[in-house]
Design a protein that fits this description.
Two copies of one chain form a homodimer. Chain A is of the alpha+beta class and 112 residues long. Chain A is 44% helix and 24% strand. Chains A and B meet through helix 1 and strand 2 of A and helix 1 and strand 2 of B.
Chain lengths: 112, 112
């Protein structure tokens, strides 16, 4: 089991901002997963990988693939109080789900 | 309501690694919070701040303060599969809890 969190590289997020947005997406997708997936992922050490996407369009395409595969997923938009314009899409989390299923969506992306 | 996640600056974590460890701490502390704190935090947009700590000792001191204040909190150790030695303390999350209570523990730290 794993969760992949995809973060945009094209909007100039600072390190702390990025980490907060990754955490936001992670929790949101986790809460949309079923109890078995949650339990299995946690008992296996809640494996997470953080990956790069280059644009909003890429994030939406990946979210659509996750939806078609029936995987828990969540897109996060920033409230825009600080670094970004309100509503800016920042991150997408896919899973927790079996690794091979997550990889069908995010397997071609680079590690952040 | 907010959650503060404190990350060490002295162990050379890359950006993606840091974000994953922040997410790990965030979820772990969230799950140790009560249902009212969870609900209030989420309905308020799950505010998160990511802050800096300079050493393992500082992380443990902050965790001890959070414990004394009765705040939900979680320390994360890395499994050590990649960049870090196994068991390295990486992050601490405090909250979700009322902002003023979180600030009694982490209010003096710098934003990451």
């Amino acid at each position: 089991m794993k969760q992949a969190i995809v973060a945009r590289t094209d909007i100039g997020m600072g390190t702390g901002k990025l980490a907060a947005q990754v955490a936001h997406a992670s929790l949101k997708a986790y809460e949309s997963a079923g109890p078995d997936a949650r339990r299995q992922w946690k008992s296996g050490g809640q494996k997470k990988v953080v990956l790069k996407a280059g644009s909003e369009r890429e994030v939406f395409d990946l979210a659509e693939q996750a939806r078609r595969e029936g995987l828990p997923h969540a897109v996060v938009r920033d409230a825009g109080h600080t670094q970004l314009d309100p509503g800016t899409v920042t991150t997408l989390a896919v899973g927790p789900a079996p690794e091979a299923m997550v990889d069908t969506v995010t397997g071609d992306l680079s590690l952040y």
